[in-house]
Write a structure and sequence with these properties.
alpha/beta, Oxidized Rhodanese, domain 1, five-stranded parallel sheet, 5 strands, Rhodanese-like domain-containing protein, GlpE_sulfurtransferase, Rhodanese-like_dom
């Protein structure tokens, strides 16, 4: 499984890179604070909403601590997607939050 640190994600965003971030936390968790520009697909709905994703784009999976996004990364990888897990999740995030 590919992994990236929260710090690396933050640096890439600050360098102006357009990243495809998928936050797999529940809606109320995301409303409490999230990385600007994310797409929220709760882990429990990922299987039903994976058709919304493009297999030609790389995605970075985000959750609270890295556990659920790790599960999501494994699942999407098995479906043929290019996915990377953000280790440490939002607990490690020091960048901007909406």
């Amino acid at each position: 499984m590919k992994e990236i640190s929260a710090k690396e994600v933050q640096q890439r965003i600050e360098n102006g890179e357009q990243l495809n971030l998928i936050d797999v936390r529940e809606v109320d968790e995301v409303q409490a604070g999230h990385i600007p520009g994310i797409t929220n697909i709760p882990l429990g709905l990922l299987e039903f909403r994976s058709h919304e994703l493009d297999k030609n784009k790389p995605y970075i999976m985000v959750c609270r601590s890295g556990g659920r996004s790790g599960q999501a990364t494994h699942y999407l990888q098995s479906q043929g997607f290019d996915v990377t897990n953000m280790t440490g999740g939002m607990m490690s995030w020091e960048g901007k939050v909406e």
